[in-house]
Amino acid sequence: MNAETLRSKYAAGQRDFRQANLYREKLTFACLDGAKFSRANLSMINLRGANLRGVDLQQADLRRAKLKDADLTGANLEGANLAGANLSGANLTGANLKQVNLNRAVLGGANLSQTNLRHANLCEAILFGAILTGAILLKANLAGAVLLKTNLTNAAVIDTDLSEARLEEVTMPDGTVQK
């Protein structure tokens, strides 16, 4: 399936694109609100600025995807592979990121407020200026991650691996600032 076919099917009312192969397709600023892409191959796709509110991307392959400034509010990304993806400025408020692979992902300025990041892999992820207020980081792996000017106010940081993580000007769960 190519981007043009997807757009026309979406415009015709289709929302179920499970297991679709959209490898390297370009869907910048597309509106795919509520679509289902579970188990789809979306690696290296360009979804910059796309409206993906409430989209189902459970276990989707989004390796090295371009999701800069995308709206993923309330999206289900449980078990998805976003290794090396660019999510700079993305809105992931209330998204389900349980067991997601964000290894080496770029999340600079991303809004991850109220997200479920239980058992998530954020090894070596870049979280410069990211907002994680109220996020659940239970048993998340942030080893080697870069957390500069990151906001963790009221986040549940329990059994989280922060070994070798770079923490500078981070607002901790209790409101104190780590310098």
Residues in β-strands, percent: 5-15%
Q: Give the class from helix and strand content and strand pairing.
A: little secondary structure
**Residue runs with pLDDT of under 50 for 5 or more positions:** none
Helix fraction, binned, reads under 10%
Give the beta-strand count.
4
For the largest beta-sheet, the strand count, sense and barrel status come to: 2 strands, parallel
- What order do the helices and strands follow? HEEEE
Average pLDDT confidence is 93
> What is the 3D form?
elongated
What's the tally of helices? 1
Tell me the span between the first and last alpha carbons: 49 Å
Q: Could you give the order of strands across the largest sheet?
A: 1-2
Radius of gyration: 16 Å
Short characterization:
By secondary structure, the protein is mostly loops.
